[in-house]
Structures are given as C-alpha cells and as structure tokens.
Amino acid sequence: MPADLDLTRLRVLAAVARTGSVTSAARTLGYAQPSVSHHLSRLESEAGIPLLQRAGRGVRLTEAGRLLADRAEEILARVDGAARELEALAGMRAGRARLAAFPSALATIVPAAVASLRADLPGLAVSLLEAEPPEAVDALRSGRVDVALVFEHTDVAHTRSIEDLSRFEVTDVFDEPVHLVRSVAEAPADAAGGVCTAPALATLSDADWIAGCERCRADLLARCAQAGFAPHIAFETDDYVAIQALVASGAGVSTVPALTLRAHRDPGVVTAPLPGAIRRIMALTIGAPTPVSYTHLTLPTIRLV
C-alpha cells in the first residue's frame, strides 16, 4: 500500500466520481482534460491498483476506484475544514457555519438557532441548505456543509437506515414522536384540543393513506406491515401542509412527525402519538468539535432550542 496519496489527485478522482466523466471533472475543476488524465494516471501509480477502466468512449471507476473516491470526499472535507478553522483562528477572516437540514427542521428549530448564532457571534456567516437526510449526508461528506441535521426512524427494525454513520461525529439533538393524523370528522369522543388516543393501526387497514417523503413513506409501510397489513396509498406528497389539508378534507389518514405539526397544524385534523413511534434527530459533523471549531457552533444552539 502507498505511503502517501496526493491531495490534488484525490480531488480529481472525487470530481470524476461525482460528475461521471473526465471531461465533466475537468470542467468542474477548471483543469485541462489532459491534466486530469495525467493526475488520474499518477494516482493509479501511487495507489498500486487500477482505479478506472474503459467504458466505450469514457471511463468508469473500478471497485477500488469507488472506494478511494468515497474516502477522498471525506479526506478533502476534513482538510478543507481544518484550513477554514486555522484561517478563522489566525484572524484571517470571519468564520462561517453551513448547515444542511430537512424541511420541517428548517421551519421550526433552525430559525431560532440561526438567530441565536447571529446574536452571539456577529462575525459568523451562516448559510442553509434544504436537504433530506441522504442528500445532507452527501453534502457533509463532500465538504459542501459543516453540519448535517438528519433524522431516522428508530423503532422499526426493517426500516432502512441512512447509512453507516460511524465515519461521522454524531450529536443527538432530540427524539420526537410520530403522530397518526385523522380528520376532525373522524375524531373520537376523547379528542381534546386536536389530540386523542391512537387506535391500533390494524383497525385502519381499509383506510386510504397519504404518504410523505421517501423515508417517512418507508416508515409507514414498515409500521403497517408490523400491524399485519399493506396500506392503500391513495396520495403521495413531500408537503406536510398538503398532507394535513388532504386529511382534513377526508381524503385519507396519515402519519407525520411532531416537528411537522409544530410547523403547521390544520384545524381540520386530530392527531395521536403512535406508541413507541420515534424519529431520532441528529447533528452530524466530520471531526470532533473543539472550543475553537466555529463550524460546530450550531450544535449546542440547536440542541437547546
């Protein structure tokens, strides 16, 4: 195995993997195409194993190439992050915090966190990226953000996890319940203030269901499977406002996490926490937070909001 791998060549390989071709990678990096080809050839020599193979007029990554490209994204993110932190520590420029978060978090806990950061650290530039967990993880791994706010459903064993999170520093933000949402017209006698006791899911096996985002839909399917039935999905939408409006109109029933209800609550629905149904909210970073690591200053702020 090689003692050293050149960072510039790793950056070239990562660009090829990300863009899908040598030509696109050259355009993205601002290099001449022969220069990209030269860097790739030298990287293969350094690695001691083929990283690319011909595919028609183009190239594709070998198994070793894909592995190294994935690790290159992590290495480059760490190096770039270290450079930003050193610049901030040396007073060369004000810091910045770049956060990726999913829509219901952006509509609830993130605005207060951003306001608190700006009040406490006027020199800190904060930018936000709306992204579902897989896209947020990818943005963190590639160095496009410093913190990824993500979620996963924890109590259904066969619900697919985001991915192996062992390569990241994981800070638990909080756990939130998942609610069953029905129309007021179907409200049971114990409903008060729009909240009631959840019935067994099996009693709703004949109902029309409204599914949310891909991960929420997977959780719904897994949860219904545990209850012994496959739900009839009548509507699908990522918009939690639309989900509640459809439920209020009598178009079906749904499940939504608590943050979506905090962001918007339709007066035409009643909700009930599903027993044991939990969505875990986490903040991911690359590298352990340090007292001078401004890229991680969002973590305690979000946790306290």
Automatic annotation (TrEMBL):
* Domain HTH lysR-type stretches: 5-62
Any idea which UniProt keywords this protein has?
Answer: DNA-binding, Transcription, Transcription regulation
A family per Pfam: LysR_substrate
Keyword field contains Acyltransferase: no
Q: What protein family is recorded? A: Belongs to the LysR transcriptional regulatory family.
Give the protein name, as stated in the record: LysR family transcriptional regulator
Q: Which organism is it from?
A: Myceligenerans indicum
